[in-house]
Each structure stands twice: as structure tokens, then as C-alpha cells.
Amino acid sequence: MTAMPSEDFEAAYESLAMAIDSAGPEREALLLTRLALVLGHQLGDIAVFKSAIRTALEGVAE
Amino acid sequence: MRPAGKGPLDSLYFHYPHFPARHVPELDGSAVRYPVVIVGAGPIGMTASLVLARYGIRSVLLDRKDTFNDGSRALCVARPSMHILERIGAVKPFLDKALGWRFGRSYYRGEQIFRLEMPHPPGEKYLPMYNLQQQYIEQYLHDAVAACGLVDMRWQSELTGIECGNDGVSLNIASPAGDYRLDADYVLAADGARSPVRTQLGLRMKGENYEGKYVIADIRMDHDFPTERRAFFEPSGNPGGTVLIHKQPENIWRVDYQLREGESEEAALLEENIRARVGAILGDIGHTKPWELEWWSIYSANTLCLDDYRHGRVFFIGDAAHIVPIFGVRGLNNGLADADNLGWKLAAVLHGEADEKLLDSYSPERRGATLDVFANATKSTRFMTPPTRGWRLAREAALSLSLKHEFPRGLANPRQMQPYTYSESPLTPWPMRDAEFAGGPASGSFPPNARLADGHFLLDRAGDGLTAILFCDGSPGDEQAALLARLGQLDRRFVALPVALQGSAPTAGAIPDTDGEIARLFGAQPHTFYLLRPDLHIAGRWKALVADEILETARLCLGRATS
Prior knowledge:
Strand content of chain B: 15-25%
Structural class of chain B: alpha/beta
Order of helices and strands of chain A: HHH
Oligomer: heterodimer
Structural class of chain A: mainly alpha
Largest interface: A-B, 20 and 20 residues
Shape of chain A: globular
CATH topology of the domain at 25-98 and 130-206 and 303-375 in chain B: FAD/NAD(P)-binding domain
Helix content of chain B: 25-40%
Number of helices of chain A: 3
Largest sheet of chain A: none
Shape of chain B: globular
CATH superfamily of the domain at 25-98 and 130-206 and 303-375 in chain B: FAD/NAD(P)-binding domain
CATH architecture of the domain at 25-98 and 130-206 and 303-375 in chain B: 3-Layer(bba) Sandwich
Distance between the termini of chain A: 30 Å
Number of strands of chain A: 0
Strand content of chain A: under 5%
């Protein structure tokens, strides 16, 4: 797997911020969960997906 | 604003001179028509007068105040601006006083997450950035204005009316010495963000205002930290808001802090609240010794500009034309580039050497630079002051991941000012020639500098008019020499800089490229030719000599296009 070029990563950051605003505060968690499932499915690798969940959870979980 | 009991000019470190209103010849009935009147003697107006003076053009410079700016607003002078200051003969006091820097750090909840390192190639003469309070910037430029003999500086002179005709502009001026009328061929509006010239002409800037508000406070303290840009996201001393800290000369430090959403601006600006918040921020950076409050103000980010920087014979330069967010230090630096860009073109027209059409390139070139700044500044502003919940969440996610991971750290990059590339300008007719090069600076861009064997720098040798940098074996060949002669006939200020390629024996006047570094920087081979404009931007470059295209480019830049 290759990392995203920084310009694309920046564009991803911006698209995400705008998508959260489009969903609205009530539905943003649903949006983000759906996004994770879509990405996980496209990724097609359960080990990498679980590792990504661990990375995201680090410092967030109590 | 200043602490209770202090007047607006009672500074801890800067002595404000008082400039009286002069009795000018117009008050005795003189009706001289001036080639240029510049409204506003801030850094941009003074620089414009000095660029014109470099070409022997006289100007009248008006300012309604009786002294320099009341506080330090602009702070960072970028490398390309140092080149402008050098060419107008004003750079020395800047180098003596300013604090040069190239590094920065960003912190999230007290932990460093990003190290900013601005490139500083060995051939560059100046550092990427210098910090200097605006009062000093104005003082040093004013010293140069006073010494040059071609600028009629008039303090306490306020514009009360402006009338634009096809052949000239009339201004009504009010001053304590009396009111009078002033006639000019051209007027430069350098009168700042609230430009009275703009208002009186009924012109409006368009664009966006951003919600986030920042307090900027200057303090004096003994604080042992190098000159770097420090950005603090979510610091404990300013919960919910970002903090920026810059070092300035005279032990003055600039603390910028973002107000929390919904926080009262009025309350935030009270001295006791400024002291409390700055004190908490200083606690965060480990400063426990005493400190003194110098000056403070409030700021919100805007991206606003005029549709056209030219209105007949009136040209808008600096904040009068465009207002940009502070993040990325583009306000002062872009204004100086405006003054430089317009200055050489206007001088050529006023000398009768260039067609007036040359002036048409000012607005597209500099407005293009503004829009480029907006694109970058909008990104950094969204990061520094996230406007909505989506942007706030995305930033918190990126910053918290940055604590342990490299991949999101680049998002905290402040995108410091880069000079704009005039590749789409009418004065850059052959950008397609860039495709022939594997490297080197693109058409329209500001060229790299190189240290020469004699200790000087390549760009020191550039002239006041067009400059050619051409690469040759020892000395220019017949074809090159013939072209240089033609260029010399076109432009009396033309300077040719032949570079003798590595391994060839340089003849007198050629610059030896002993280690091949200059050719590497410019992606050059024998016969490669760069044509620089008076502001040093690259008008065109040719891997091999194409005399017709080079001459046409020169004519365009000189305002002598035949077509």
C-alpha cells in the first residue's frame, strides 16, 4: 500500500471536513461510520482495517 | 491599544518622531503637475516612491498622520522582499536590525507535532524570513526617502477629494498649513485597508470574511528562545484557541491568540483580560519572569480584493487593493511586490520609453498573485481558525493523530509566502519553452541566486532594466553576441551576464561557473538563455537561442510591442 501524496491528502482532509458539515451534528457519527465501512470494503484487507481501527482508537478510548 | 496611562505613541522601545506639516508651493498658487502622487506613506507607498526614484522619477508622497504606524502590525519580511529593499538601496538597516529565521515548531496540547524548515539553499543571499516591527520598517524606508532627493514627502496631508480625468488626476489635500489642489499624471493609492481613495472612487473589495478572531499583543520580556515561528494548538494557556509566538528585535515578542467562539471582543480587549491571557500563555512556554505589555489589537481573517487594481490613472497597491489573512505573512510582502511591479512599468511609461499599454499588465499580474495567496491563505486560515464543526473535527482528528504519526503533520504547515509566478502574464509569451528544460526556474518565476567566486551573488549583477543570463563556452558566440547587441539597442539599461560553463575558459566579463552550480540551478547547457525583467522575474527562458522570441519578449516587457 502506498501513502497518499500530500496534496491529495490535503484534499481528502478538506472533503472530509465538508462532508461532516453536510451530514450535520446529528448524523455525523453515522456518516463517519459509513465512510469507514466503505473504505474498509474497498481496502479488502481485514488485518490492515483492524490495524487502522487501532491507530484511530489510540488516545481516544478511555 | 496601549496600557492605561499611556498615550498611543508611548512605546517601551520605539521613539516616534513628529513630522510637521510643510508649507508647500501649491499654497502660494503654484500649479505644477506631478508625474506621480502617492497617497499613503506606509511601507508600500514609501517603497513605491523609492522604486520610482531608482529610475529618476519624482513623486509626491502624502500621509495624513504625523508619524509612523502606532504599533507593530506587519512583522515578517520575506526573502523576495529583501531583494526589493536591496534594489531600492534600503536593505542595510534591515539586515542590521531584523531577526532572520527559517525554522518553526507546531505543538498540540503541549507536544511538538511539526517542525517547519524553510529551504535555504547555499546560493541564497538572504534568509527566507526576517522579523522586524513595522515602525522600524517605516523608519528605515523613510530614511531612504529623505536621502533620495526625488520624493516630496508631505506629512499631515489628507486626501479630501479626487477627480479622475482622461489625462490626469486632481486631488484635494487638507493640511494644517492650508488646503490645496494637486494635479498628477498618475496616482498610486497606498492608503491601506480602509483606503480613502478607494472609498471616494466608490470602489469595493469583494471576497470573504472569516469568523475566527485573534488578539495580537506585543510584550517585552527576557526570554531565551531562538527566532522561530511557534504555533500552539489547544494549549492549556488558551483553551479552545490557537496561539502564535514570534520574536522581534528589542526583546519584543508577538503573541497572537485566537478568541474562543462566542467570546466578547470588547471584554477580550480589556487590559486586565489581555494581561491574564498573555500571562497564562507565557506560563505554558515556561516564562515565569516579569514581562511588560507594549501594545495590542484585534484581528480577523479576510480574503478581500478589488476586481481591478487599476482605475484609469489610479493604481491600487498593498492593502488598498487586497486584504489577506496574516497566516503566511503575505500582507506586507505582497504589497512590496505590488510597488516593485508597478514601479518599473510606470517609470518606463513616464520616461516615454514604453507604451502606456505596459501598465495593463499590472493588475492581472498582481491580482493573480493575490488570488494565489487567497488559495493558500484560505487553507491555512481554515486550519488556524476552523470555521465550522466539520473543520474543527477534522483538525482535531489530524492534530491528535499527529502526536504519534507522521502522515498528518504536513497539514500544520503554515505555507509561508512564496513569490508568485507570472507564467500566465501577457509579458510571459513563451511559457511553453519550459517544456524543454528538465529543471531550473520556470518562466514567470523569481530566479534562484548563486554565490560567485568573488563572494558576490549572481543577482547582485542584475541591472535596472532587462537582464540576460546566458550560458556559453568561455564567451558568447557570434549569434549570442549579435542578440545581446540588439537587446542593448532596445534597452539602455540592459545588462548581459554571460556565464562561462564549467570546464571552459572564461573571457573577461564572463562569470566563471567553476563548480557547475549555476548551470545546475538553471538547468542550463551551452546557449541557454534567461531573460529577466527589471523586477528580476523571468520573462522567458530558452534552452537554445531563439532570437526572434527573445526579442519579442524584450519588446513586450519594455512596452514596445509592435503588434
